[in-house]
Design a protein that fits this description.
Largest sheet: 4 strands, mixed
Strand order of the largest sheet: 2-1-4-3
CATH topology of the largest domain: Helix Hairpins
Helix content: over 70%
Order of helices and strands: HHHHEEHEE
Number of domains: 2
Strand content: 5-15%
Structural class: mainly alpha
Radius of gyration: 42 Å
Number of strands: 4
CATH class of the largest domain: Mainly Alpha
Length: 247
């Protein structure tokens, strides 16, 4: 392939812009805010799951408390009824009187036990409410932190997109100055060689693979026509001769 020396040198400008585009795209993919937002999303999911468990526990405790309070009230009403009956003097039989007194004592013990249950449930409720308040605080903090990280990410993405747009415009302008066959070869080699399709020959070394050329290779390049498109024997990239090639 043959191409004007100026067109070959222009490949180096194109390669520089392509390298910049690759760096910008890499920055876009690896923004630290991406990881921060993902970490905070996972943290929020965990906190919200824990909060849902506590809220379910509180609902269960509220039902348990209402039941225990109803049980206390039922026992209290029954004990009051039996006490009024005892105090009214309506019971004259010693055996029935003894049975009534025993039942009142049993109801008193049962009421005390149920009241202890109510107090225990209330204590568990208090602990659960404290856990809920702490989790709500942690959720609010994580949400604020996530929003801040997302805002920083959006700002970074916008800045990088502006740089990408500017670099893409420069690339289109440079690519339009390069013959189609030379540009096609460059694009093919760039795809095959980790994004580098053309490299300068400087001081006898290929800037693409960073290897020095042999004396024989340099002699061939020295005698090649200026419009001949040369390739590095090591990496096969387009090798562009420049003033400080060392030829």
């Amino acid at each position: 392939m043959r191409a004007e020396p100026d067109h070959q040198v222009r490949l180096l400008d194109l390669q520089e812009v392509d390298a910049e585009l690759d760096r910008l795209n890499h920055r876009m993919r690896t923004l630290p805010e991406h990881e921060q937002v993902q970490r905070l999303d996972a943290r929020l999911t965990e906190l919200r799951d824990r909060l849902a468990v506590v809220e379910t526990e509180l609902r269960d405790l509220e039902r348990e408390q209402r039941k225990a309070e109803r049980d206390v009230e039922q026992v209290r009403v029954r004990a009051e009824r039996d006490t009024r009956r005892l105090e009214s003097g309506q019971v004259s039989s010693p055996k029935e009187l003894e049975s009534l007194q025993s039942e009142i004592a049993s109801l008193a013990r049962r009421q005390s036990e149920l009241e202890d249950i109510v107090l225990e449930v209330m204590e568990r409720q208090e602990n659960a409410e404290a856990r809920r308040a702490e989790l709500e605080r942690e959720v609010a903090e994580a949400e604020a932190e996530r929003e801040s990280a997302d805002n920083r990410r959006s700002e970074s993405v916008l800045r990088i997109r502006d740089e990408l747009d500017s670099a893409a415009q420069r690339r289109a302008r440079i690519a339009g100055e390069i013959p189609a066959d030379l540009l096609g070869l460059y694009e093919k080699l760039r795809e095959q060689n980790a994004g580098v399709g053309a490299a300068a020959l400087r001081y006898g070394r290929c800037e693409g693979c960073k290897l020095e050329l042999s004396t024989a290779e340099l002699r061939e390049l020295r005698t090649a026509e200026p419009d001949e498109v040369t390739r590095c024997e090591n990496c096969r990239r387009i090798l562009v001769r420049v003033p400080d090639s060392g030829l």
